[in-house]
Amino acid sequence: MKAAVYDGVFKPSSANDVSPTCPTGNCTFPLFDTLAVCSKCLDVSNQVVINNTPANPSALEGSQEVSYSLPGGATIDFSVIFEEGILAQGPAIILTTDFPSNLSKETLGLQDPLFTLAVLQFPNVAPEIRDGNYYNTQPTTNECALYFCVKTYNASVVNGVLNSTLVASWTSDTGTPTVGAALGSTGMDGTQDAVLQAPVDGVNGNHTYVIPAGSLANLRAWLNVTLQGTMNTSFSKVDGTIWAKDVIQALNETTDWNGLMSGVALSITSYIRSDASGLPGVVQVNGTAYKIETYVHVRWRWIALPIVLVGLSIVFLVATILKNENKRALAWKSSSLALLFHGLEGVGRGAEGRGQMERVAKHTRVVLRKGGDGEWKLINTRSSALP
After folding, report:
1. Residue 92: which of 132, 141, 125 has the closest Cα?
2. pLDDT digits over 343-355, tens only?
C-alpha cells in the first residue's frame, strides 16, 4: 500500500488500472462493483483570510508570526524571518491535516473521509518585502480528501488493449471514522470496522464491503505522517535553501492537485483490486474470451456462372465427339501429319488412313520457302512413291 501511495505521489499521471487476464486479446466482462478509493479537491484560495496583517509590512524585522483562517474553521499559524527588508526564511509550501473534524463535511461535503489535507503554496512571495510577502499576497490554497468508495466499472479488452470505463461511484454517508489512529501504538482502540453498504440498485445488489479497523487506522495514520510537512525557502546568503524530505519536495512542485490526488486514489485502488494485495474476500470477475476463427460464407448465386460455363463446355465436348463420330474424322490430337497432307505442295493426297500417311511422311522432305506470290510455303524436296 505504501508503494502504491508513493507511485501516486511521484508519478500521478502514469497510474494505471488493473489489467485483466485475457489470453486471446479480446475479452468482455459484465458490469462489476469494486471497493476503491476516490479523491476530491477544491481550490479555496479566495476564501483564505489573513488574521494579523501588520500596519507596516515593509518595516518588519526578525521573527514574525503569520496566521491564516481557512474555510471550515481551520487556522494555520507559522513563523517567518525578515532581515533588513529581506525575507530571510519562510515556507514555500505547508501541508497539514491538523484542523477541525467538521472541515471535510463543511468544505468538501464528505463525512469522515480516510484522509483530509490542506495545502498552502506561496508562489508570489519575493525576497524583497515590498515586492510581496506573507501579509500582502494570498497563498494558493487547496483542500483535498481521499475516501473509500464503491466503483462500478465496464471493462473490455480489444486487440490486447484494455478499455475501462467508470460507470458509477458511491460512498457512505457515515464515512470511515477512526479513533486515535497512531502508528506503533494502541491509538486505534475504539476504531470500528468501516462498513460500506452499497445501494440496492447497484450492479451486485445490496453488497457490503468491510474495512478492518486496524487497516483503516494505520493507513490513515501513515498518510497523515507521510503527506504532512513544510518546505522552507530561504533567501538568506548564509542559510541558503532548506531542503525537505523527498515526498514534500515532490508535492511542492505540484500545481494540479486534482490530478495528483486522483493519481494517488487510482494507484491505491489498483493495489486493492490486484492479487498482490492479499485482501480477504476478494472475488474475481469472470468474462468471456473471444478468438479469431476462419469463417467461410458461400454465396450460391455467385457460383451460377462457373456452373453454367462448365455445363456448356461439357455439352460442346459431347457435341464435338458426336460430330466427329458421324464424319469418321481421325483423332489427330498433337500429330503433324494433318499439316503435311493439307496444303503441302508437292505431296500427294492419295494416302488413305493414318498408316499410309505415316509411311509417306517417313520418306518426305520439305523446306519452308517464299513463293512467287510472296507467301511462305512448305515445299516438298524429295518424296518416294507409296509402297
Report:
1. 125
2. 555 555 555 566 7
